[in-house]
Design goal:
The complex is a heterodimer of chains A (174) and B (419). Chain A has three helices and ten strands; from the N terminus they run ααβββαβββββββ. With 174 residues, chain A is α+β, with helices and mostly antiparallel strands. Chain A is 22% helix and 24% strand. The longest helix of chain A is centred in the N-terminal third of the chain and has 26 residues. In chain A, the strands form three sheets. Chain A has a four-stranded antiparallel sheet with strand order 5-6-7-8, with no helix packed on it. Chain A has a three-stranded antiparallel sheet with strand order 1-10-9, with no helix packed on it. A three-stranded antiparallel sheet of chain A has the order 2-3-4, with no helix packed on it. Chain B is mainly alpha-helical and 419 residues long. Chain B has 17 helices and two strands. In chain B, strands 1-2 form a two-stranded antiparallel ribbon. The C terminus of chain B is likely disordered. The chains are: A alpha+beta (174), B mainly alpha (419). Chains A and B meet through loops of A and α7, α8 and α12 of B.
Chain lengths: 174, 419
């Protein structure tokens, strides 16, 4: 204890450092499975696509389907509704996004989006609010006919999930 | 009096105590010198211990009948209410017990605020207490999810979505919390597991809370340091135990009043509708004890800002001992702080009220004013008042004001003779 004044790396220092390092790696290797087990399991991931028959939906009507435990709104918009959604200046939008970017080109009447308010996850009510689109009853967010946030605490437009038209009457979500 | 001097009378007791000094601990707890002027606001520590044990015992029993599964949970709670012997009683005690627990903890916290019990040398007691309070909120929230009614489901959705406000990793954290892509069966099962765990964590913290309390000893209504043991103190048993027991009895009468005569008055009718991920109830409100924080969350027209302010409203309490600059503990001798204390109480009650109302019009204005004032109280008023306030003279001992209101020697002497 009392002999070396000068700083040298001893065999003991080396053993300490390597032991701590190996210990930390080992601890991490044990903790990670305990954390990752809480992520969605394979059964949850397997529910990742849903096919929807849209042949019965009249213009101006919408249906709601469940996908990954969340509601998805499929709205068949009328021409007036599309025009109204497109007449808005991007400067008036908190989360600027053109209506054209939120639908598939050539399928402009179909608005497919997650029916989940981007504030805290409630389901907005359709045909309500100041912009004729959706209104979230939880904390008062207003969405327009393109599902874009216009007023209220929600930060973003309602999310467009990955989806495709399998044929003229079927949409595959996911 | 102290544990060092304690020697068990029996030979067997001595043999045991030499190996595990449990009897010394018991002796310390009974003889523990307590300020003789503690009023009834000091009985809530004992009441809170009772609440915790009630929740643990009724909870263990309920877990014998409850089924943690999204398809079965709601029905299993009804099964408890209708089929299980005394199931209705045990569940109502448990659900109202949560409310009583929070009622008691709020009184306990405001007691501490009024008499300056959070100040040096009791900062660690205060911080452990806040950790208990945080765990209580987590346990209550998860417990409320378990019946899998509409309020359970949508309350869980809103609260877990708070974490999605975190930049970059928010969505991953929320998905991780859910174990799915929305609140779903995996969420329910993990909430059940954690809901069972947390009370025992609280129990452990309660032991630390009391341990930390027994180092400096109790604060008291006049807020002065006292010599222990002295004529300013009485032994914990029987003087404080009997006072605590009496207060507990009164508390239990109110508790029983809720359980037997108004078991659902503090709950929400929508929670008797099974969870439906397609429909959000028109008006979501948390349980009453979380309403002030909910009002703060909604008062900010920005998602991340609201979440930060809501958590900030709780975490600001952790630095309270360092925000309060006054050397005098008790508000009894602080004429200015005393008034701000009552304004803070009104502020929190107003926030609670508007938290239950729709976030629009006058309610939104009130919520914003209330939120600003809440932070103003802790960040500006407390530090400034501590410097500027002219405090009233603090007595030298508890006996002085208790005996005569002045240091009348003849009366003090008489009291000594009686003892």
């Amino acid at each position: 204890m009392d002999k070396p004044e000068k700083k040298t790396t001893t065999r003991r220092d080396f053993l300490f450092t390597t032991s701590y390092t190996v210990g930390a790696v080992g601890l991490g290797a044990v903790i990670w499975p305990l954390i990752d087990q809480m992520n969605p399991d394979k059964a949850q991931q397997a529910l990742a696509t849903t096919e929807v028959d849209i042949s019965q939906i009249e213009p101006g009507k919408s249906i709601t389907v469940l996908w990954r435990g969340k509601p998805v709104f499929l709205k068949r918009r009328t021409q007036e509704e599309i025009l109204e959604a497109r007449s808005v200046s991007l400067n008036d939008l908190p989360d600027p996004e053109k209506d054209e970017e939120r639908v598939k080109s050539g399928k402009d009447e179909w608005l497919v989006m997650l029916g989940v308010c981007t504030h805290l996850g409630c389901v907005p009510l359709s045909n309500k609010g100041d912009y004729k689109g959706w209104f979230c009853p939880c904390h008062g967010s207003h969405y327009d006919l393109s599902g874009r946030i216009r007023k209220g605490p929600a930060p973003k437009n309602m999310e467009i999930p990955k989806y495709e038209f399998v044929d003229a009457n079927t949409i595959k979500i996911g | 009096m102290s544990e060092q001097e304690y020697v068990p009378k029996s030979k067997a007791g001595k043999w045991f105590n030499d190996r595990l000094p449990l009897l010394s601990l018991a002796s310390h707890l009974t003889d523990y010198p307590t300020p003789k002027n503690l009023n009834y606001w000091w009985t809530f520590g004992g009441i809170l211990t009772f609440c915790l044990l009630t929740q643990i015992i009724t909870g263990i029993v309920l877990a014998m009948h409850y089924v943690a599964h999204a398809d079965l949970a709601f029905a299993s709670v009804e099964h408890i209410m209708r089929d299980v012997n005394y199931g209705w009683l045990i569940r109502y005690i448990h659900s109202n017990g949560a409310s009583m627990f929070f009622l008691a903890v709020y009184i306990h916290i405001f007691r501490s605020l009024f008499y300056g019990s959070y100040k040096s040398p009791r900062e660690i007691i205060w911080i452990i207490g806040l950790m208990i309070y945080l765990l209580m909120m987590a346990a209550a929230f998860m417990g409320y999810v378990l019946p899998w009614g509409q309020m359970s489901f949508w309350g869980a959705t809103v609260i877990t979505n708070l974490f999605s406000a975190i930049p970059l990793v928010g969505d991953s954290i929320t998905t991780w919390l859910w174990g799915a892509y929305s609140v779903d069966n995996p969420t329910l099962t993990r909430f059940f597991s954690l809901h069972y765990l947390i009370p025992f964590l609280i129990l452990g913290l309660v032991v630390l809370h009391i341990w930390a309390l027994h180092v400096p000893g109790n604060n008291n209504p006049v807020g002065i340091d006292i010599k222990k043991p002295s004529k300013d103190t009485v032994p914990f048993h029987p003087y404080i135990t009997i006072k605590d027991a009496f207060a507990l009895l009164l508390f239990m009468i109110i508790f029983a009043g809720f359980v037997f005569f108004a078991p659902n008055v503090l709950g929400h009718a929508d929670n008797y509708i099974q969870a439906n991920p397609m429909v959000t109830p028109a008006h979501i409100v948390p349980e009453w004890y979380l309403l002030p924080f909910y009002a703060i969350l909604r008062s900010v027209p920005d998602k991340l800002g609201g979440v930060i302010l809501m958590f900030g409203a709780i975490f600001i309490l952790f630095v309270l001992p360092w925000l309060d600059t006054s050397k005098v503990r008790s508000a009894v001798f602080r004429p200015i702080y005393r008034q701000f204390f009552w304004i803070l109480i009104v502020d929190v009650l107003v926030l609670g009220y508007v938290g239950a109302m729709p976030a629009e019009g006058i309610y939104l204005v009130l919520a914003r004013v209330g939120t600003v004032y809440y932070f103003l109280h802790f960040l500006v008023i407390l530090p400034v008042v501590g410097y500027l306030e002219k405090t009233e003279p603090v007595p030298l001992s508890i006996s002085e004001p208790v005996l005569s209101g002045s240091a009348d020697y003849s009366i003090a002497k008489k009291d000594n003779e009686k003892i």
